[in-house]
């Protein structure tokens, strides 16, 4: 007769699922994730904010190399720009140009 192990904790299935997902999706263990989280001082690698949820694992879709941990807005943002630095730089220039234009307009009383 086969015995079924008793789960000591209600979080054990969740931890096992997380371990499986991190390994399958990113090739890392929860221990590696936690080490990254600690190195980043619990902050998003882009905006440096602390968030009340687990940071996402940013990785290169082509090489599958894990980069850093990001908050949802930053991870979604770079995804929206197709992970293309040139497109992100163009967006930053656009925002700077439009902010300068708005300041000029405000100063001239328009």
Task: Describe what you observe in this structure.
There is one protein chain. With 110 residues, this protein is mostly helical. The chain has a domain at 12-82: His-Me finger endonuclease fold (3-Layer(aba) Sandwich), CATH 3.40.1800.10. It has 4 helices and 2 strands. The protein has helices spanning 12-26, 30-39, 72-80, 85-107, and strands at 56-59, 66-70. It has a two-stranded antiparallel sheet with strand order 1-2. The N and C termini lie far apart (84 Å). The mean pLDDT is 90.
| Proportion of helical residues | 40-55%
Write down how many β-strands occur, each being a DSSP E stretch of 2 or more residues. Answer: 2
At the fold tier of CATH, the topology name of the domain at 12-82 is: His-Me finger endonuclease fold
The dominant shape is: elongated
CATH architecture of the domain at 12-82: 3-Layer(aba) Sandwich
Rg, alpha carbons:
21 Å
CATH level 1 class label of the domain at 12-82: Alpha Beta
> How many DSSP H or I helices?
4
Query: What is the mean predicted local confidence, pLDDT?
Result: 90
The named CATH superfamily of the domain at 12-82 = His-Me finger endonucleases
Strand content range:
5-15%
**Largest β sheet strand count, sense and barrel closure:** 2 strands, antiparallel
Order of helices and strands: HHEEHH
């Amino acid at each position: 007769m086969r015995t079924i192990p008793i789960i000591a904790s209600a979080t054990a299935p969740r931890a096992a699922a997380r371990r499986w997902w991190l390994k399958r999706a990113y090739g890392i263990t929860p221990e590696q994730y936690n080490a990254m989280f600690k190195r980043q001082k619990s902050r998003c690698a882009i905006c440096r904010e602390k968030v009340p949820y687990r940071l996402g694992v940013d990785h290169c879709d082509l090489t599958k190399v894990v980069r850093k941990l990001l908050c949802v807005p930053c991870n979604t943002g770079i995804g929206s720009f197709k992970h293309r630095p040139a497109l992100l730089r163009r967006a930053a220039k656009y925002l700077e140009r439009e902010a300068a234009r708005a300041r000029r307009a405000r100063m001239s009383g328009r």
